[in-house]
Amino acid sequence: MKDKSYIWISFIVLIFGIWAVPKIIKKFEKSDLHVVGTAPKFELVDQNNKTINNVSYEGKVYLVEFFFANCPTICPIMNMNMLKLQDTFYGNMKFGIASITIDPTRDTVEALKVHADELGVKNPYWHMMTGDATYIYDLAKKFNLYTGVNPDAPGGFEHSGLFALVDKNGQIRCRIDEHGNPIIYYDGTTDEGVEWLKQDIKLLLEE
């Protein structure tokens, strides 16, 4: 009798396990990245003299940064880290990058084309964009990414080294830290920030 009870219990456990596994797998297939909000709309001109806007990135996971080509401080680090991400997702037409200059006077279409070529931009959806200075600074405020003109700063400008991560539906997304708080943006100057982006971009591409 005892043996029969054991067999019956084992059978129940097996059936429960078969029922539960798909739910567990499904849970881990879905990205749990936090939704920060809708990315601001924009329209600028890229290094190929093409008009690019937020609609150009529809259906793509993309990063947004504010930079300038003559930056002597953190931009070279940010550029190298963007290249790492370009290489990681090379060939994936659902991944893009939006690099927006905060020095549009010097960063003309022609200057950005030279900069992109020298840097090694290969992703067709990595747009280095320029436009009206007031418009760009207002756009940075909408993204809540710091930018500023400062004659005393190296290169004459200041900006954050943070990247915004935008999903296929135009929503800014981020991971949650160990305290349960959204990090909002990713540090584009650190190895840790790049590794987090590699992981989280992959999650969003699979959504």
TrEMBL record:
Residues given in the record as Cu cation binding sites: 71, 75, 159
Which PROSITE patterns does UniProt cross-reference here? THIOREDOXIN_2 (PS51352)
Which InterPro entries does the record match to this protein?
SCO1/SenC (IPR003782), Thioredoxin-like_sf (IPR036249), Thioredoxin_domain (IPR013766)
What disulfide bonds does the UniProt entry report for this chain?
Answer: 71-75
User: Domain of life here?
Assistant: Bacteria
* Transmembrane spans: 6-25
Q: Which UniProt keywords apply?
A: Copper, Disulfide bond, Membrane, Metal-binding, Transmembrane, Transmembrane helix
Ranges of residues in domain Thioredoxin = 33-202
What's a Pfam family in this record? SCO1-SenC
A Gene Ontology molecular-function term? metal ion binding
Similarity field: Belongs to the SCO1/2 family.
Q: What is this protein called?
A: Protein SCO1/2
